[in-house]
Write a structure and sequence with these properties.
The chain is mostly beta strands. The chain contains 5 helices and 35 strands. The chain folds into 3 domains: about 120 residues, Immunoglobulin-like (Sandwich), CATH 2.60.40.420; about 160 residues, Immunoglobulin-like; about 170 residues, Cupredoxins -  blue copper proteins (Immunoglobulin-like), CATH 2.60.40.420.
């Protein structure tokens, strides 16, 4: 085997091909994106399938794997997929958002090439174009630890993916029309678990099977577009072990609030009477609670699942308190041999503070969502391409919003929003939510430390209550109504990175921005060159490629 590894090795692996050539293995995937009829809630809807599947196939990898995904767009509209949580070190070219990449035209393909460098954990991929995410094109993305790196729990009997989300029967074109007309989407029609809902008629096929006495890993992600969900296992507790790339302190929970865009890994032990049980997902912070179930079946078990479901929690204060129980496991290894806690983020001086306040306003009679008085508009030329080709001034301006919300936050301007971030600065970002709807924010290219969260408005003295020891390093954070959340991070990954609302109607109508991180050295040590074969569009189409970085 050692000889084969040094020369080359090809292995077919779950619909992909693995190639090792002396260095880190490369996984090859080919995805065909098509329309197809789906009916999670029993109503036929035109969905988006990947290789005929809804949800799409899981993308399984190991730390430092190189991943090549050739995406063929067989839709009649542009399509683009992002890898939510993958940091793409020095390589925002592969992030798959409209600020870095041209969408894949109908009938064309694009090949993503990226490395899951120094990462482990549970993530997901999904489309960022239009409202495609509402009807599919999403799936699980797993980064497993290398065999030589110890994991702080025993190997589970199996590794399951549970994708939960809200669903709207209007379909993606219907939802887009609603938003384009300046209206709100309203509430969802229901909730699904892996694209299904148990009918409870005794004929449901199980989502998962368990064997008595064994422990199973469930990777739970909220792939919905708008609604926080509470997840619980009938008759079983969940031991939280990982969250968006970080090993956590292993507390037990009867239920977990999973906000839009977030992923948790839990261990569930089959320690109950062998029969069927429900896994339950319920909407949170909605006027009308919607609940969906799926079947978990014990092998050789007898008996249907009880119709008495475990109740969901009430109110968002419960959820805030649950957030405060999440702690980074300081002694466990992550992707590297050194313990997670060896990075002392709490002792680094803050060099810039940015406070972002979200608002919902009407512009020319139509609904728009904004941050610090600006609502993002997608230019026809991706921001990163404009920057790289030296024509940024023709596409956007830097720092068009202040670092603090304006005193009159009711006026809204429509434009691309790009913050110019100094390379390697340690930055504090506060999200302030003055609305009655919960928010969820994701930052691509990074993980950050979620150090604080509370009701009311943020002020500098709130730093006294920051968790500067063992806050979880993650990529998505919720902000409760009339509350704030604070994160800390070092902007050390050069590129153009999207900070966006994961609430997809808000994202579509402007609640997002980009952070540009440029190395003063213009060196390959800090950022990769424009890849060969990259799609170009807008004003850079047909322009000669700029000279590459040489060192």
């Amino acid at each position: 085997m050692a000889r084969l590894t040094l020369i080359s090795m090809l292995v077919l692996l779950a619909g992909s091909m693995l190639m090792v050539q002396g260095g880190d293995p490369t996984l090859f995937f080919e995805w065909n994106v098509t329309y197809g009829t789906i009916a999670p809630l029993g109503v036929p809807v035109r969905g988006i399938l990947i290789n005929g599947q809804f949800p799409g196939p899981n993308l399984n990898s190991t730390t430092n794997n190189n991943i090549v995904v050739n995406v063929f767009n067989n839709l009649d509209e542009p399509f683009l997929v992002t890898w939510d949580g993958v940091q793409h070190r020095k390589n925002s070219w592969q992030d798959g958002v409209l600020g870095t990449n041209c969408p894949i035209p109908p009938g064309k393909n694009y090949t993503y090439k990226f490395q899951v460098k120094d990462q482990i954990g549970s993530y997901m991929y999904y489309p960022v174009t239009a409202m495609h995410k509402a009807v599919g094109g999403f799936g699980g993305l797993h980064v497993n630890s290398r065999l030589l790196i110890p994991v702080p729990y025993a190997d589970p009997a199996d590794d399951y993916t549970l994708l939960v989300g809200d669903f709207f029967n209007k379909g993606h074109t219907g939802l887009k029309k609603i938003l384009d007309s300046g209206r709100n989407l309203g509430r969802c029609d229901g909730v699904h678990l892996n694209g299904k809902v148990a009918k409870g008629d005794g004929k449901d096929e199980p989502l998962f099977t368990m064997e008595a006495g064994k422990t199973y890993k469930y990777r739970i992600c909220n792939t919905g577009i708008k609604t926080s969900l509470n997840v619980r296992f009938q008759g079983h507790t969940m031991k939280l072990v990982e969250m968006e790339g970080s090993h956590t302190m292993q507390n037990d929970y009867d239920s977990l609030d999973v906000h839009v865009g977030q992923c948790f890994s839990v261990l569930v032990t089959a320690n109950q009477e062998p029969r069927d049980y429900y896994v339950v997902a319920s909407t949170r912070f909605t006027r009308r609670e919607v609940t969906a179930t799926g079947i978990i079946r014990y092998k050789n078990g007898k008996g249907a699942a009880s119709s008495e479901l475990p109740p969901p929690p009430v109110g968002w204060a419960w959820s805030l308190n649950q957030f405060r129980t999440f702690r980074w496991n300081l002694t466990s290894n992550a992707a590297r041999p050194n313990p997670q806690g060896s990075y002392k983020y709490g002792s680094i001086n803050i060099t810039r503070t940015i406070k972002l306040a979200n608002t919902a306003q009407r512009v020319d009679g139509k609904l728009r969502y904004a941050l610090n008085g600006a609502s993002y508009v997608e230019p026809t030329t991706p921001l990163k391409l404009a920057e790289y080709y030296g024509v940024a001034d023709k596409v956007f301006k830097y720092d068009t919003i202040p670092d603090v919300p304006p005193s009159d936050n009711t006026k809204v301007t429509l434009a691309p929003i790009v913050l110019n971030m100094t390379h390697r600065n340690f930055v504090e970002i506060i999200f302030e939510n003055h609305e009655t709807a919960i928010q969820s924010y994701h930052l691509s290219g990074y993980s950050f430390f979620a150090v604080g969260m509370d009701i009311g408005k943020w002020s500098p003295e709130k730093r006294m209550n920051y968790n500067l020891l063992d806050a979880v390093s993650r990529h998505t954070i919720q902000v409760f109504p009339n509350s704030w959340s604070a994160i800390l991070l070092t902007f050390d990954n050069c590129g153009m990175w999207n900070l966006r609302s994961e609430i997809w109607d808000r994202h579509y109508l402007g609640q997002q921005l980009y952070a540009s991180v440029i190395s003063p050295n213009r060196s390959l040590k800090d950022e990769y060159n424009l890849p060969e074969g990259v799609l170009t569009c807008g004003i850079v189409q047909g322009m000669p490629r700029p000279p590459p970085f040489s060192s």
